[in-house]
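Title: Comparing notes on inverse folding

I've been comparing how different people in this forum approach sequence design from structure. To keep things fair, I'm posting one structure and asking everyone to reply with a full sequence. Here's the target:
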């Protein structure tokens, strides 16, 4: 057996561009540190992510979503694993269970279960004195209607355990509940909670020596209600020092209260007239290309290598972990319909400040209404000297691209200018 440290990469990547990019960077940073990496997932996902998986030292077919299966496989594999890690939200429980099973550094499984269960997380934070919207787990329409009668609105309806804004919608009266419930991805119990008024942010960070270290606060842009699909991110968010300190104190205290201590984190929050109100807490890094934005804003940052070094008890790199530049991502939001052509895309790709750009539609495709993250058709990530410059440039580049619709029978041809 090799003396090189071994990392079990539970779940590897999802077959999505940002996840594949994150996994490729994680594998490269592990290789640069002499760490052997073994990737596990179902045969179907391993095949769908073959280009990334090929960069690992080994793979095994394990259903990372089945409770206990990853831990049982690791114990019986005959392999030594010094660290256990996952990018994916749905694999975090398996990581915690597996790390505990093999004696590697990790978050307590009960803490991860609590964080992954949105209502349980809210209850734990509220019990510790953190301001939280009132939430109820509902089994059916009648229970949701009862919640609306007992608490002032508006209200949010959302799945108990989902991602990418799937099934999340705003309701302002009980009559809107049936339509909101129809958007849920399955027939499982769901959450109804009070809507929080205020701009939304996310906090990106990493645990070092068991202590949370915030790397950046990210400002979010979303489509107007009733849906909440994210259409842009800017970091570092332009906030007064007092606000930043308030966020740092609240997020750090909440993470300790919840029992998290290893890996990365992505915490959502609102800034309200009453102060910081915490939203969902995630024991992993944020998606939507935030990893690329962080790497530009903090020169020399190796996000995954930082986690691996901490897990292995190695000295941390002597680089600043504070943003000195700015970055932004903006998604295209053309109106729905069948697409005839796209104009201006090549010019976006050629811009020197573009860190990444992606277009997921072409002539003949149908653009769907923007109800969840999976409906977004493309994006542009840019880096600049400041967050304000990055935000303005991302908006200019997105607005420079024109989506030409196929004309409707009773209308003259025209251009969809992006907003």
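Reply #1:
Here's my take.
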């Amino acid at each position: 057996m090799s003396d090189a440290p071994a990392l079990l990469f539970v779940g590897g990547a999802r077959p999505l561009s940002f996840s594949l990019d994150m996994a490729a960077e994680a594998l490269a940073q592990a290789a640069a540190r002499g760490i052997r990496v073994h990737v596990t997932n179902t045969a179907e996902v391993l095949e769908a992510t073959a280009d990334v998986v090929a960069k690992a030292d080994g793979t095994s077919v394990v259903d990372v979503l089945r409770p206990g299966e990853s831990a049982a496989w690791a114990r019986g594999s005959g392999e030594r694993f010094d660290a256990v890690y996952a990018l994916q939200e749905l694999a975090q429980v398996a990581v915690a269970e597996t790390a505990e099973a093999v004696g590697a550094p990790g978050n307590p499984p009960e803490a991860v279960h609590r964080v992954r269960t949105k209502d349980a997380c809210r209850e734990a934070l509220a019990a510790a004195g953190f301001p939280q919207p009132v939430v109820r787990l509902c089994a059916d329409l009648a229970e949701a209607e009862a919640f609306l009668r007992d608490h002032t609105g508006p209200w949010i309806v959302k799945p108990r355990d989902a991602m990418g804004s799937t099934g999340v919608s705003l309701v302002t009266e009980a009559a809107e509940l049936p339509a909101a419930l129809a958007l849920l991805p399955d027939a499982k119990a769901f959450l109804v909670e009070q809507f929080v008024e205020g701009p939304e942010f996310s906090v990106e960070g990493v645990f070092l020596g068991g202590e949370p270290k915030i790397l950046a606060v990210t400002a979010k842009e979303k489509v107007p209600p009733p849906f909440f699909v994210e259409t842009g991110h800017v970091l570092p968010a332009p906030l007064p020092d007092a606000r930043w300190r308030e966020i740092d104190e609240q997020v750090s205290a909440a993470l300790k209260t919840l029992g998290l201590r290893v890996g990365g984190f992505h915490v959502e929050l609102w800034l309200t007239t009453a102060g910081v109100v915490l939203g969902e807490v995630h024991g992993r890094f944020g998606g939507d290309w935030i990893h690329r934005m962080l790497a530009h804003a903090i020169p020399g940052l190796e996000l995954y290598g930082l986690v691996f070094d901490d897990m292995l008890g190695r000295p941390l790199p002597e680089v600043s972990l504070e943003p000195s530049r700015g970055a932004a991502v903006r998604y295209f939001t053309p109106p729905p319909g069948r697409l005839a052509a796209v104009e201006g895309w090549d010019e976006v790709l050629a811009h020197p400040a573009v860190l990444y750009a992606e277009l997921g539609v072409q002539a003949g495709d149908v653009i769907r209404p923007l109800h969840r993250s999976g409906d977004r058709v493309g994006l542009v990530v840019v880096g600049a000297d400041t967050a304000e410059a990055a935000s303005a440039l991302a908006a200019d580049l997105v607005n420079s691209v024109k989506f030409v619709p196929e004309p409707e029978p009773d209308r003259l041809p025209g251009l969809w200018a992006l907003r």
